[in-house]
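Lecture notes, unit on protein representations.

Consider one protein chain, 187 amino acids long.
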Amino acid sequence: MTIAKTYITADELLLDSFKLGVQIHNSGFKPDFIVGVWRGGTPVGIAIQEILAYLGNDSDHIAIRTSSYYGINEQSKEVRVHGIDYLISNMNAEDKLLIVDDVFDSGRSIKAILDTLKEKSRKNLPHDIRMAMPWYKPERNIIEVVPDYFIHETDEWLVFPHEMDGLTEKEIFENKKNMKEILSGVK
């Protein structure tokens, strides 16, 4: 079965990330901590942190990681959260936390992050936690949380600029600029 895919370029993702940053700034939210969810949320988090700093909001920033995906449309039952020790050691209840990812799909990763932070931070859990993602898939959302900031709503399968896993050679060559030339140099 062939799954229809939407390919997002690096430039599109960067511009959407800057737009998210402006949306966050215009809302009046000034995060003390920005967390980019590795992998896809990392470049988005960097761009948001950069534009917020440019607009006068300096914040601490870090990447954390979740693990649950096996492949396209295949997830394990449990979502694990890795690398949050820095947040646990440094955040306080009065801090403002922004969690950034590339897409809000089922919400399982966000729920795992929030649950883990709540469990490990206890009384130091920030009272103001918000989420920003360029892409939101409302039809796939299985939790009672919606991202605070997003640019696009879709139900399509998204292929981000860095992704190659699950793509055929034909899809890579047709949708990833210069990849045929780059891969021809592989020995």
